[in-house]
Design goal:
alpha+beta, metal ion binding, single chain
Length: 406
Amino acid sequence: MLSGRRYRLELTSEQAEMCEEFGNICRSVWNTGLHQRREYRRRGAWMNYVPQCAELAEAKREHPWLKAAPSHVLQQTLRDLDRACRDHGTFKVRWRSKVRWSPSFRFPAGNHIEVERLGRKWGRAKLPKLGSVRFRWSRPLGGEIRSATVSRKAGRWYVSFLVDDQAVTPEKHAMPGTAVGIDRGVKVAAVTSDGDFHDREFITAGEAGRYRRFQQQFARAKKGSANRSKTRAAMNRIMGRVTDRRADFCAQTASRIVAKNALVVLEDLRIKNMSASASGTIEAPGSRVAQKRGLNRAILDKGWHRLELALVGAARYTGTTVVKVNAAYTSQRCSACGFACEENRESQSVFVCKAEGCGYIAHADVNAAVNIKHAGGQSVSACGDLGASRSAKQEPVGRATGRTPS
């Protein structure tokens, strides 16, 4: 199966300038192609990859600066644009800003990329037009190279090889019959139905303080000034370390979970909607904007979506099945008797069942994770129902019965 391997590049000054130039050309091609697609859509017509690729060849004759970048790199940019427009819609695809977008470009011909190991810590890859580039050999390639992507993050250049490691997804998990539910939260990143708490701090107190000071300096700096660029680079270095820690945490957590369970059940969360701003419009401003802003930051900081992607990726190597179920009332329902009401959850961490004759007490996140695990056998329908008997939009059964319908 296909897998990614990322390494840190050690470029010469000339190679770094070439990479910067390639990235700028790809950004210009993306923005020009997106503008053309939007103009066609406004006239009720369509534009796709094939005619744009043909027009790119003509544009290279009129604009010689386009020839500085390899042709197949620019073609891959148009291919990525075509996929983005098909998946999200032409008018929802974003422009690539010179300031906000990190340069990246892809070499699709893996058979033209040669990689050799120079020693214990260093390797060398031969890339079109860039020549031989050195990189830190932090892990073996482990497969045949299909493509290579060069990108810049937090002031450093990286190369990511897409390799075919010849691995095959097992037909059966090593421990069949095992299952786990995962409750993702803002206090603890992930809590499993087995009672395991997976969490860590992604930014230290010192880094948070320095980042706040850089934000203040950035706000006071003049737009386009050298000090503003230096401050932005310092902020990116801090956030680069934070995102690397988050990615490492999610990868390790996902690897441990799928190794022990044949079925992993998650809540079907609409993270983009949950982390949307509450500011509203000028005419109709939202309420409790500051509280919602803090909640949004906590949701995004815990990396809910990244953990989900890591679980799906790691499950390919163990044969684990990852399913998502409706999240309605999982935090209010008692995992012992099934009684659901808002008063069951007394606080963020305390769950006490209020049903007569039950009185079940547990950590609220563990109780929710157990409910998620129990719902793992029920698929999420198009209307978001928990099952055939009750819609997710209906209120839970009251105190008279003490139980929710099965």
